[in-house]
Design brief:
alpha/beta; Hypothetical Protein Ychn, Chain: A; five-stranded parallel sheet; 5 helices; 5 strands; about 15% strand
């Protein structure tokens, strides 16, 4: 039910949007690509980022944007199963709508954390910062919403 309601809200929000898209227009074949680096675990900053992602998803047509959040340093904490339960619910919801969350293994190794301590369906890379660099080189747009 929650998923159906969110889909309805996304469709309704897009239909009433006065957003003017630059050419080339975002499409399924050519979506906008947004990479966010998250290196803080402050609850206020993390939730502001999640709200910004939700707002951006509402502004674009379905499949018109891809979003990836790459966590490293303190930001890795936000994807641990023992982080704030309400925030984890928001993260899981965004994951259902295609937002990708990635964890830095270098940070995990430093903190001696294991894969099973993190949300299911997160991705892992060896170096979070290197992942951000490569995404940018690959055409992803880096914008930090907090």
């Amino acid at each position: 039910m929650k998923k159906i309601l969110l889909v309805f809200m996304l469709l309704f929000s897009y239909g009433s949007s006065d957003m003017k898209f630059s050419d080339p227009q975002p499409t399924f074949e050519n979506p906008r690509k947004w990479v966010i680096k998250l290196n803080v675990a402050n609850l206020e900053d993390v939730n502001h980022m999640l709200s910004s992602i939700n707002n951006v998803l509402k502004a674009y047509p379905s499949e018109g944007i891809q979003v990836v959040v790459v966590t490293y340093a303190q930001g890795v904490r936000s994807l641990r199963k023992d982080y704030d339960p309400d925030t984890l619910t928001r993260i899981r919801s965004l994951m259902e709508y295609g937002v990708e969350f990635i964890v830095c293994r270098n940070t995990m190794d430093t903190m001696k954390w294991k894969d099973n301590e993190f949300l299911d369906d997160v991705g892992f890379v060896q170096a979070g910062i290197a992942e951000v660099i490569e995404r940018i080189v690959g055409g992803w747009i880096p914008v930090e919403p907090y």
